[in-house]
């Protein structure tokens, strides 16, 4: 490993010439012994050099130029398997200096985040984290560590053996911390592996609020939180180790600094782009189930696995989620915010989020509804912008020479489509009517007053217990019958009384429905049997064949006949209320004649036809006198 290096005057190469600096460092390393001074020189000359932005040093586009590129020279010195990093791992002070230098590079870098993800700095960090939090036995080699007395030597063959209670490396570490949140335990023994402790300390340092965080630092924090969840949920086939790692994830040593960081950053976030990056960091920490099994994303973990995580991190949902929802109203909603907006709103209906929020007695549906109502205003404003642009280019010459829709119109259209899709999902899962309200109330020229009023509405904190909300259970539309059928998740939601269908939307005049209070039972059975008998005639069948037509005859038929089962009209979808659905053609609406009012009119008409004009006149006079008497009695009682 590193040996002593020959001193050479630093002024022989400029401080901002990366290749020259790397060659100078390499020329001064002449043996394989670890050397702390060499590691300090690398940190000082590369990581702390104000003239070198490691976030902007990318691999060359042409593979033939890789060997001579600054990226390759730096990688050869500081990669995760380098002698430099081996030296850093053995020295806690060097490890602290390295992490401080990495944070400083992220703070001062002006490189955009998209290319920075492939930079030499983030490539090295990913290798460092993989070494410190191993999640794959194939990624590490065997290593020997000193064994306690009475045993000459013991080999750790897998990185995961480092975390066992009988590990020789663990037993020779003695950690005492005054802050309880900085301690982890295995078998109720207060200690933690040194590398995991250093990693958690690095996250704590990353969450400082002394200076506002830039985009590259947020990218770094998000990566660290993701790897933390991956490591804590990696299955080692050792129940003791796995339970310890789950306890570590539940009560992370950096939990409170991270909470303070989110709380402070969301309050003072300057732009929508930074706000999006902060939300993505919060989502990474608040949704650990996404990293349950990275090799098989379709392997969904049970919600019960994360109940303790939600219980111990309730402030991340009660306070931070509330601030995120409120803060959305402070920014102009652009395309970059819509994915994070959807991820936040889906907490109100998507599993396992909604089940875990109910477990900690938190209901966010009313608050998400307020946010979506604000999004209705955003859609109206974008639609108004689109109409204004179209009107401005509606003249003859503009139409003749117009090259197409402007970028502004295309952006507004994408925003409207994405927000309407989100509202449609809310209508489907939660039972709102946001899309329908947009169709009714969408008028041009919406004033800014409505926009500001919607902003002021979204101000309540998430601090109330859940209500028995009317949410539509998880279901799918059966194509042959066009009915809503419950999925296994939806069946569980109904049994637990978490969701239910709104049967008030079902057809009120179902021919096979129960007898109502204003109907005569014998007449209902008679009219239903008569209608089914009449359906056997070819004339009635011919009339019913026009039911689904969008013509005048079809509209008349829909007034005089019940819909068929199944009804293939997509606008006529109603919840299925029976385990078996009997197919039937359109049926004549004869049940109307089974009501007491209809029966009275039929009897009166028959007697008038039988007894003539005198009976009709006398009966009308008597009915008028009766109604007049009833009205006078009501007026007298009121006075």
Automatic annotation (TrEMBL):
GO terms for molecular function, please? sphingomyelin phosphodiesterase D activity
| Localization annotation | Membrane
Q: Cross-referenced InterPro entries, in alphabetical order?
A: Sphingomy_SMPD4
Q: What is its main location?
A: membrane
Residue ranges crossing the lipid bilayer per the database entry: 613-633
Cellular component, GO annotation: membrane
Topology in the lipid bilayer is annotated as:
Single-pass membrane protein
Q: Which UniProt keywords apply?
A: Membrane, Transmembrane, Transmembrane helix
Q: Which PANTHER family match?
A: SPHINGOMYELIN PHOSPHODIESTERASE 4
Spell out the protein name for this chain.
Answer: Sphingomyelin phosphodiesterase 4
Query: Which organism encodes this protein?
Result: Caenorhabditis briggsae
């Amino acid at each position: 490993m590193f040996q002593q290096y020959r001193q050479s005057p630093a002024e022989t190469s400029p401080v901002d010439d990366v290749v020259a600096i790397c060659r100078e460092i390499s020329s001064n390393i002449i043996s394989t012994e670890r050397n702390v001074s060499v590691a300090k020189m690398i940190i000082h000359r590369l990581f702390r050099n104000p003239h070198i932005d490691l976030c902007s040093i990318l691999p060359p586009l042409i593979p033939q130029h890789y060997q001579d590129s600054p990226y390759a020279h730096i990688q050869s010195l500081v990669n995760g398997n380098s002698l430099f990093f081996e030296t850093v791992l053995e020295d806690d002070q060097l490890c602290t200096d390295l992490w401080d230098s990495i944070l400083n590079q992220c703070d001062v870098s002006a490189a955009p985040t998209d290319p920075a993800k492939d930079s030499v700095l983030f490539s090295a960090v990913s290798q460092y984290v993989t070494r410190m939090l191993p999640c794959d036995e194939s990624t590490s080699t065997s290593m020997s560590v000193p064994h306690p007395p009475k045993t000459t030597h013991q080999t750790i063959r897998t990185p995961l053996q480092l975390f066992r209670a009988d590990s020789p490396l663990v037993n020779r570490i003695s950690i005492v911390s005054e802050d309880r949140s900085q301690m982890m335990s295995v078998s109720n023994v207060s200690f933690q592996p040194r590398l995991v402790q250093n990693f958690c300390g690095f996250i704590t340092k990353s969450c400082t609020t002394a200076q506002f965080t830039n985009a590259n630092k947020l990218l770094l924090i998000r990566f660290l939180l993701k790897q933390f969840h991956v490591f804590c949920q990696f299955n080692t086939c050792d129940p003791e180790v796995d339970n310890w790692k789950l306890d570590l994830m539940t009560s992370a040593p950096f939990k409170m600094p991270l909470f303070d960081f989110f709380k402070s950053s969301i309050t003072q976030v300057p732009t929508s782009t930074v706000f999006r990056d902060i939300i993505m960091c919060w989502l990474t920490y608040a949704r650990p189930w996404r990293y349950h099994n990275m090799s098989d994303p379709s392997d969904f973990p049970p919600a019960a696995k994360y109940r303790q995580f939600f219980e111990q991190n309730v402030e991340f949902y009660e306070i931070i989620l509330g601030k995120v929802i409120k803060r959305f109203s402070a920014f102009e909603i652009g395309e970059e915010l819509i994915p994070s907006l959807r991820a936040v709103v889906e907490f109100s209906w998507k599993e396992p989020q909604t089940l875990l929020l109910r477990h900690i007695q938190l209901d966010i549906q009313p608050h998400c509804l307020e946010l979506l109502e604000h999004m209705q205003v955003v859609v109206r404003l974008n639609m108004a912008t689109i109409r204004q642009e179209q009107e401005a280019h509606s003249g003859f010459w503009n139409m003749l020479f117009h090259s197409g829709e402007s970028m502004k119109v295309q952006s507004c259209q994408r925003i409207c489509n994405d927000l309407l899709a989100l509202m449609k999902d809310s209508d489907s899962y939660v039972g709102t009517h946001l899309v329908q309200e947009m169709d009714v109330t969408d008028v041009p020229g919406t004033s800014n007053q409505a926009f500001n009023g919607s902003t002021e509405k979204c101000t309540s904190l998430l601090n109330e217990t859940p209500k028995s909300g009317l949410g539509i259970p998880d279901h799918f539309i059966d194509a042959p019958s066009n009915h809503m059928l419950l999925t296994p998740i939806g069946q569980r939601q109904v049994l637990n009384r978490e969701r239910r269908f709104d049967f008030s939307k079902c057809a009120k005049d179902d021919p096979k429905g129960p007898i109502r209070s204003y109907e005569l039972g014998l007449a209902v059975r008679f009219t239903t049997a008569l209608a089914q008998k009449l359906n056997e005639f070819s004339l009635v069948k011919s009339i019913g064949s026009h039911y689904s037509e969008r013509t005048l005859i079809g509209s008349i038929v829909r007034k005089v006949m019940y819909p068929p089962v199944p009804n293939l009209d997509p606008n006529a979808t109603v919840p299925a209320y029976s385990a078996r659905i009997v197919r039937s053609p359109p049926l004549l609406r004869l049940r109307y004649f089974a009501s007491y009012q209809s029966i009275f009119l039929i009897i009166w008409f028959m007697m008038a036809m039988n007894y003539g004009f005198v009976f009709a006149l006398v009966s009308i006079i008597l009915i008028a006198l009766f109604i007049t008497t009833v009205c006078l009695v009501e007026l007298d009682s009121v006075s």
